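Progress note, project year one: complex with FE2/S2 (inorganic) cluster.
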Amino acid sequence: MYVCHCTVVTDRDVLEAIANGARCVADVARATGAGRTCGNCVTSLRELVCQHCPVASRGTTEHPAERELGVAGAAR
Ligand code: FES
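Model obtained:
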């Protein structure tokens, strides 16, 4: 299933990024390119990180690095 239509990133790509060490949306964005154009996928990226990342902090809505790395929609 496509998660980021702007960069054609699938949920499998996101899960692979998490398996390879991504621990926040910014890490996933860095690994896949997702989330840096329109930002419509950031919520879905965050949900996947929260569901599948063993150390993701739950309850936070924004990781400080998201803004620093230019993840679109980080300020939402
Ligand atoms: S859908 Fe992911 S940046 Fe646009």
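The first helix runs from residue 11 to 19.
Residues 4-6, 34-41, 72 surround FE2/S2 (inorganic) cluster (CB under 6 Å).
No further modelling is planned for this target in the current period.
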